[in-house]
Design goal:
Blueprint (H helix, E strand, L loop, with lengths): L1 E4 L3 E4 L3 H7 L2 H5 L20 H14 L4 H9 L25 H11 L3 H7 L4 H5 L16 H13 L7 H6 E6 L2 E6 L2 H19 L2 H19 L12 H9 L6 H10 L5 E3 L6 E5 L7 E4 L2 E4 H4 L2 H9 L3 E7 L2
Antiparallel strand pairs: 1-2, 3-4, 5-9, 6-9, 7-8
Helix pairs in contact: 3-4, 3-8, 11-13
Length: 329
């Protein structure tokens, strides 16, 4: 199978287990899930899917020599995302606005109820091992460390939102090494570590945790919650696709004035601003920053060791962002 990725270029994928997983219903569904949630009203033409990101994480791990078990874990790491991605954290009582963790909370149950365990067993892979994220430190690490998931979504977003022309510079300077505590990503010099950290910071502050995201998460979350309360959709419908959920909910717009108003907010037809002194609703967003390792005179050191001011940026950006939304109508 030939696969062309907008970040990493063209690849030939030949591993039978990977091919079957990519073709599975669980992975195919991700083609209909927007990576950002529902950013089109705010940034037209920037939509990209959870499928694209998931295959990207797999390709990144493959490029840097991760074992096949970790490549598999990278490929399936987002299969439990609901329609509209992290917007579900603003629609369900069990969601978390500050952590945006609903997908992680349901991940194991979702995978075990899918066809994925059968595919893994067919090719001799243990599902329990694949589902244990502690086995795969290139794929997942806590902030402010780098990991394949974090690297892919930030570089992919930076290219799509035209913050960088391509990812080639960073891919040329990435390295992987085994440190105390497991495998780690690092840069081969200070300059590239600094540039990546700054790009990641911009992606977080402007896009992932910026005002447009606050408006998106709140408005889509309210729209979904209304639809669930009125039984226009079921909880199971959340695990179809964005398009399917849109179709089912919007069939009720003419009969439900409140739903129609929420739809107008969600699609940007009703304006909204950040107004701490006079607001309709407060919204919290997950914020993030990274503190990359880089090689300096044969040793691996943190960016914050070379740039002490970066410690304050990490401290500041690790706190959830808060917005106070005031709608025009």
């Amino acid at each position: 199978m030939k696969y062309k990725d907008r970040i990493y270029g063209e690849f030939r994928i030949a591993e039978p287990v990977i091919l079957e997983l990519i073709a599975s219903q669980a992975m195919e569904r991700l083609k209909g899930i927007d990576q950002a949630g529902y950013f089109e009203p705010h940034y037209p033409g920037t939509a990209h899917s959870r499928f694209e990101h998931s295959v990207g994480v797999y390709l990144l791990l493959k490029m840097f020599g991760a074992p096949i078990h970790e490549q598999i874990a990278g490929l399936i790491h987002d299969v439990s995302h609901s329609a509209f991605s992290h917007c579900v954290d603003y629609a369900l009582d069990e969601g978390s606005e500050e952590k945006q963790s609903y997908q992680d909370d349901v991940f194991e149950k979702f995978v075990r109820n899918s066809e994925i365990p059968g595919i893994l067993k067919k090719y001799g892979f243990d599902t329990d091992y694949i589902l244990d994220s502690g086995n795969f430190l290139l794929l997942e690490k806590d902030l402010p460390d780098l990991c394949a998931d974090r690297i892919d979504y930030s570089l992919r977003g930076a290219v799509i939102f035209k913050e960088i022309p391509d990812a080639g510079y960073f891919l040329d300077h990435f390295k992987v090494d085994s440190l105390v505590g497991g495998e780690s990503w690092f840069f081969d010099n200070l300059e590239s570590a600094k540039k990546f950290a700054e790009i990641f910071l911009k992606m977080s502050s402007v896009y992932y945790a910026g005002l447009p995201s606050a408006i998106m998460f709140r408005t889509v979350g309210d729209w979904l919650r209304r639809a669930l309360e009125k039984k226009y959709i079921t909880h199971d419908d959340l695990f179809t696709t964005d398009g399917r959920v849109l179709e089912k909910i919007n069939a009720h717009l003419k009969e439900d004035y409140e739903l129609e108003k929420l739809c107008r907010r969600m699609t940007g037809k009703i304006g909204c601003k950040n107004s701490p002194g006079d607001h309709d609703v407060k919204v919290s967003l997950k914020s993030r920053a990274v503190n990359p390792l880089f090689r300096n005179q044969g040793k691996l050191v943190r960016l914050s060791e070379a740039m002490p001011d970066w410690k304050e940026i990490i401290r500041r950006e690790s706190k959830p962002k808060e917005y106070y939304l005031k709608f025009e109508k």
